[in-house]
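[step 3/7] fold_predict: job queued, chain A
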Amino acid sequence: MPMPWFLLSLALGRSPGVLSLERLIGLQDTARCSPGLSCHLWDGDVLCLPGSVVSAPGPVLVPARLQTELVLRCRQETDCDLCVRVAVHLAVRGPREERAEEEERFGAAASPELEDSRKAALQARVVLSFQAYHTTRCVLLEVQVPAALARPGPSAVQGPSHTRSGDLLPYGSVVFDCFKAALGAEVRIWSYTQPRYQKELNVTQLLPDCKGLEVQDSIQSCWALPWLSVSAEGDLVRLVLDAPEEQRFGLALYRSQPHGAPRPWWHRNLTGPQTITLNHTDLLPCLCIQVWPLEPDSVRTSTCPFREDPRALRNLWRAARPRLLPPHSWLLDAPCSLPAEATLCWQAPGGGPCQPLAPPLPRDNITVNKAQEFPLLRGHPNLCIQVSSWEKLQLQECLWADTLGPLRDDMLLVETRGPQLNRTLCALEHSGCTPLPSRASTRAARVGEHLLQDLESGQCLQLWDDDRGALWACPMDKYVHRRWALVWLGCLLVAAALLLLLLLLLRKDPVKGWLRLLKQDYRFGAAARGRAALLLYSADDAGFERLVGALASALCALPLRVAVELWSRRELSAQGPLAWFHAQRRRTLQEGGVVALLFSPGAVALCREWLQDGAAAAAPAARGPHDAFAASLSCVLPDFQQGRAPGRYVGACFEGLLAPDAVPALFRTVPVFSLPSQLPDFLGALQGPCARGSGLLAERAQQVSRTLQPALDSCFQHRGAPGRGAGWALGPGPGLE
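[step 4/7] structure written:
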C-alpha cells in the first residue's frame, strides 16, 4: 500500500528509498551482504556490552554509516508487524597501504610478516543494538572480506590508491532483517564492533503511528486502537481519545530521555471516549503520549506532539538550572534533553555584560544531566557560566556565588603565551582587554604597574593555566582605599571641627536633649536598618493576600527592607516567577538577610505535592501567572534537604488559619512562629542577632499587632469564620520583660 511522501520521510529520514512498505514473509531474522563479502548471523541475541575503544593492530573492518528502512513482517496477509531494517555500510581502517609503500621503498622482497598480512582476509564482528520503550535487543553479525578485495585500489575507492593510517575505505555493506518496533515509538539504533575500534554509530527515529502508515488492514493492533488528537484552547491543552463506549485502553504520559528508560509522569486505565486536560505549564518538548488497548501483547503507539511547541520550550528553559559539583565539575539540570552550548564569563561588580572567557571553556555542546569538567585551578565568585541555544543566551548563573560569597572588586588578568615562549598580559574590562602596561585612561591602565607588581609577588589568584596562557584575579580594594584615604581623612577632620564648634555654641540642656534624640533614633531604627527580608506565600485567596500585605507594610515601618511578590507584579510578569525568585533570593542572602515562608493551607498542600512521588500523583492543578511560591519550591526544597536552611530561612503561620504542627516536618528544621502570639520572636529572627533580647521588641511587636488586627478580622470574615476580636490583642510573649 503506498504511503504519503511526508509520512515516509518522517519514518525513514531524509533519503527514503521506497514509496511503499515491503512485506517480509516469516518470522526468522536474516542477514545478507553486498557482492564479494560473506556474512553470518549468530543465532539468538547477545549481550549489549560495547566496552571501551581500543587501538587497531592493523587494517580492521568498522561501521562507517547506518541506514534504516521500514518494512512489514507478516505471518498472513492481514497479520503484520512494523519492522526496522538496518543496513550497515562497512569500511577499512588501518595502515595496510603504508606497508605497501615501505615494500616499494626498500625493495621488491617483502618480509614474511608483511606477506602474511597482505594475504590475510579481514573479519569483523558487528553488533547492532536496538532500543525502544521497554525493549532492548542486540544481534551479532560476522562479516569477512576476502584478501583480494581487502587491498585498496581504483576499483574499490575513487581517487588515490594510497591512504594514511586512520583513513576509511568503503568495502560494501551488510543488511539485517529486522527489529520489530511499536507504532509511533521512538527507537535508537547503535552499531559497533567487538572489540570496539572507534566510537559507535547511532541513529534515532520517531516511527509513524497507525494513522500515518495507513496500514490498518495489515496490522491487527491498529483495528481497535483509540484515535488520539491534541487541541489547544488558551492556556489549556486537551487530549481527545476517540474510542468505542466499552473499549478499555491505557494512556500514559512520559518524558522521553536520550539515554536510558523514559521517565513516567502520569498513567491511567480508561474506558470509552475520554478528554484529558493539561495546563500549558505542564508542556515540555520531551512530553510524549502513549496509548494501547488493554489486551495481551498489544502494541503501544507513542507520539511526542510538543517537540516544537514554543510554550514547551519556554517551560523547559525555566526549569533548567546549572548546578556546581565540587570541586571542578558542573551539570545542567533539566527535565529534557536540549541543544545547548556553554561557556565561562567574568562578571564585574556594578552590572554590565558578562565578559566571555573563550580559552578556559570554549563554546561547545553540553549534555543535560551529565557532569561536565571545568578546566580550572580554582573557583571565583565573579566566574559565571552562560548557556546558549541557537546562538541565543538562555541562562547565566554565577555558580560559586553561594559558596564563596558575593562578587568581588577583582581585576582579571589574561596571560597569552606565544610559540617563542613570549607572553603578553592584558586586563579584562568592559571596553575590552587593556594591555599592561598602557597609557590609556581606563581604570586598569592607571594602576597597571601595581597590578604587574602584585602578579610577580604572588598576590593574585591563578584561576587557569595551560600551554596557551593563564588567568589571574588581582584584588583592587587596596587601590580604591589608597585613592580615597586622604579624602575621607579630610572629611572626618572637617566634621569633627564642626561638631566641636556646635557643642561650644549650644547650651548644656539643648545638647543633652539633642543627644537623647540621637540615641533614641539609633535604638529604634539603626539596629534594623539595612536588614533584608523576602516574604514567600501562596495566594490562597484575596483575604490572605491582604493579610500578607498588611504584615509586609508593618515590617517596613520597623524599618526592614521587605521584598514580596504582591508588590512586584510588573517585574514578576516580565521575568517570570522562577527568575524573579532567583534574583530576590540571591540578593537577600548576599546581603545577610532572611527568607520568611508564610505557611497557609494552600502552601502546605503545594509542599506536600512537591514532596510526594511524582509518578503516582495526578496531573498538577493550574497555577496563577504570579505564583512565586510554587516556582520557588524547586530551589527552597534542596536548601532544606541539604541542610543549608538554618540561618537563612524562618517560617510563620497565622493562628486560626493553620497550626504549626501542620507544616511538613522538613520545614520545621528552622523556627516556625505562630502569629501574632510569637511576634516578638518572629521580629527578632527577621532583624538578626543584634535585635534579640532588646527591650524594643515588645514595643515593635505591639505596633505590628495593631497593624495586623483589621486584616486578621477581615481574613476570618472572608473565610466565613468568626473573628477573634479583642482576643487577638498581643500580650507579653516569650522573652519579654
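[step 5/7] annotate
The chain has 18 helices and 35 strands.
Residues 320-408 form one domain.
exit 0
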